[in-house]
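cron nightly-structures :: item 1 of 1
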Amino acid sequence: MILCPNCQHQEIPGALFCSNCGAQLVEGEGTSTQNIQRGSTNQLQDTHLPVPEIPMPIALPESQVSLYLLENGQIIPLVGREEYTLGRSAQGQPILPDIDLTPFKAYENGVSRLHASIKAGKQIAVTDLGSVNGTLLNGKKIPPHQSHSINHGDVVTLGKLKVQVLIRQ
């Protein structure tokens, strides 16, 4: 049996995609995620950096949760669903993320095709989906496939792409 790295669903040998969540089970040809150099993984996990004071945007969208891209100031409202996958598209990739960060230099910043997910229910949470370059929450690396609560103003870093989470109270 093959175990899905995203949802842990068991699939028959030879399956290419998870029948439960649609995640790719076998690494296919195409553009892989660019590895970024940050030093050793242990050093990264042990380092807790203070979250810099980041000015909030003047007007928040009407959605409960929005993503504020720190590099260019763009706001992406999360509306219509309770869970969103974040990542980048790649040519020939049949499974696309709900929020495609390709236009925001996702590949150059080390964002995986299916990098992380955000659940926007009663409690807002982020989960790394086993990405190559990892996900940081307020400067601290989070383990893959574990849900972590996030609050208004928290900074989620996908590879090197920094996104501030805006939650309407």
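cron nightly-structures :: done
The helical segments are 41-46.
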